[in-house]
Amino acid sequence: LQEYEGGRDAEGQRHGLGKARLPNGDTYEGEYEHELMGVSSVPNVFQGTYRFKNGALYTGNYLQNKKHGKGVFFYPDGSKYAGDWVHDQRQGFGEYLYANGDTYTGEWANNKRHGQGTYVYKDTGSKYVGYWVDGIQNGPAELIHLNHRFKGRFLNGKPSGRGKFIFDIGCEQHGEYIQPVQEKEEEEEEEPPLPLEPIWKPSEITKFTPWCPHDEE
Fold first, then answer.
1. What b/e readout covers 76-91, taking b as 16+ CB neighbours within 10 angstroms?
2. Which among 187, 195, 203, 214 is placed 20 to 30 Å from 83, CA to CA?
3. Per-residue DSSP letters for 79-103?
């Protein structure tokens, strides 16, 4: 069913270093232990390289034929992930370089940005430093721009509630983001309307203060 060159155990199973070409055109070169890829008692050692027919490539740890441990995945669109894997999922800590040049460095769970992390937008140089839930910006965070930054909370990828803008000139603007109410149309539309952007409502301008989003809790 597939081509294989390499070591075998006493029962003829693939064991030790070997190279295989799979029926779908993918190839694997690395360690085997009794027919399974990349099983080893030594953790965090690059044990195998898997080349996909579509141009993707993974090099790193395997456990029972699944990406597990440390590894680097090069995707066909030019993006790259380097970090922790658990049973074929990006999970733990890792860095993702996206095809458009953006980067995310932080925590992952089930292939999604989850936990604390930093996302850098290449085009603008802006940076989101804060929390994520299932790939969406959620929780206390700081959005840093060229000459000012916003500290507050995010909900479903948008700023929400109390926060403040901090300007490099030495002052802050305090206020809150309010979600506008969606007006109902007399006739129902076929597609649901897009959610409205939150509106910033300033309350005061002050000098620098030590307040941060955690204070609300």
1. eeebbbbbbbbeebbb
2. 214
3. -EEEEEEETTEEEEEEEEE-TTS-E
- The radius of gyration computed from the CA coordinates of the chain, to the nearest angstrom, equals 24
- What fold, for 1-86? 2.20.110
- Topology, domain 100-183+196-209: 2.20.110
Calpha distance 199→197 (Å, rounded): 6
Q: What is the pTM of this model?
A: 0.82
124-155 pLDDT tens trace: 999 999 999 999 999 999 999 999 999 999 99
Which residues of the chain, if any, have pLDDT below 50? 41-45
